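Re-run requested by the PI after the first attempt was lost when the workstation crashed. Everything re-entered from the original request form. Ligand of interest: nicotinamide-adenine-dinucleotide.
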Amino acid sequence: MILVTGGAGFIGANFVLDWLACNGEPVVNLDKLTYAGNLQTLGSLEQDPRHRFVRGDIGDRELVSRLLTEHRPRAVINFAAESHVDRSIHGPGDFIQTNVVGTFNLLEAVRDYWSTLAEGEKQDFRFLHVSTDEVYGTLTAEDAPFCETNRYEPNSPYSASKAASDHLVRAWHHTYGLPVLTTNCSNNYGPYHFPEKLIPLVILNALAGKPLPIYGDGQQIRDWLYVKDHCSAIRRVLEAGKTGETYNVGGWNEKANLDVVRTICAILDELQPRADGKPYAEQITYVADRPGHDRRYAIDARKLEKELGWKPAETFDSGIRKTVAWYLANRDWTDAVTSGTYRQWMDKHYGAGA
Ligand code: NAD
Ligand code: DAU
């Protein structure tokens, strides 16, 4: 079996759902259920004996050690993190606590467990750390996309905390020999994305008749990858990646934010036109820029493509269409998230105040 952390969040939950659908190997899912964790996303697994959910913190070394000893996973995949750049600007403390101190404690618990394994199991064990392209900083329009050899130049409290965690993971390999793998992925989008992030925010605000906020001039560029392609990349790296290596993950889909928002508006115009017949793009509103806003991210994914034969299944056009259609077809999930009632689901399972 495998231990997944942060598996009630956007990417982690997509990963767990896909893993059980295409692999079947049992999963222990450790998640703190912060505001970003949503057990409703995993509702289809409620009766599935292959999925065991545990509410807890990656920084709780005792709990993690107990889970490792009890379940004896062959791999740990670490998705757990504070992930939103804007939140990191308003309050960096939680980012340092989970992304840096939490990762440190997780690594220590895993190292203890790993050191007790028999030689063969030790060699086969993997700690896969899920990271971001934001650790490389920002690009100009002329720069080549980020390679694995680019310098780390994080600019936000979020990316600095992720960079620190990447360094810890690297050091635990070089110093202690822990068999680690690190993936640095570009912006994900797709089902179950929390609507604080650009794409789900724009879809849901558009449908609610609210403004579609564009930071600054909207010409910042992100490199978008459909979340299920990120999940397939992680599965591939886990299966065939070389320990101690890092792999950049991306789908060669650079887009300016304003173009992304206009594309979403055009798809909505087609699939669910406004009652007044006007285009959704009329709701676009320019707002103050994000402080320290990185101008451009772009991933060079050739190492992963060439060495491990991974390729994304979706283009941006196919993925964004699927995503908008998913949000239109899953109003129960989106209503619960926007109204906050998804947290009642947690209260039901974990008691009030959860
Ligand atoms: P998310 O915010 O949607 O989910 C994070 C999950 O981690 C939540 O379920 C939350 O409850 C859990 N969590 C937070 N702190 C925890 C702790 N201390 N212990 C246990 N669980 C905790 O994030 P996401 O977008 O799914 O991102 C997952 C990972 O992928 C993160 O490490 C992020 O840095 C990385 N990443 C994200 C993107 C992206 O575009 N979203 C791109 C590249 C990499
Ligand atoms: O690059 C990978 C990263 O992508 C991940 O590591 C992060 O966890 C993830 O949150 C994401 O970070 P971004 O800051 O790029 O994503 P976000 O959706 O917050 O913003 C995307 C772009 O859209 C960014 O340039 C800021 C802009 N934006 C965002 C919001 C929420 C707006 O213009 N308006 C908005 O309201």
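Saved to the shared folder this time. The CA atoms of residues 48 and 163 lie 36 Å apart.
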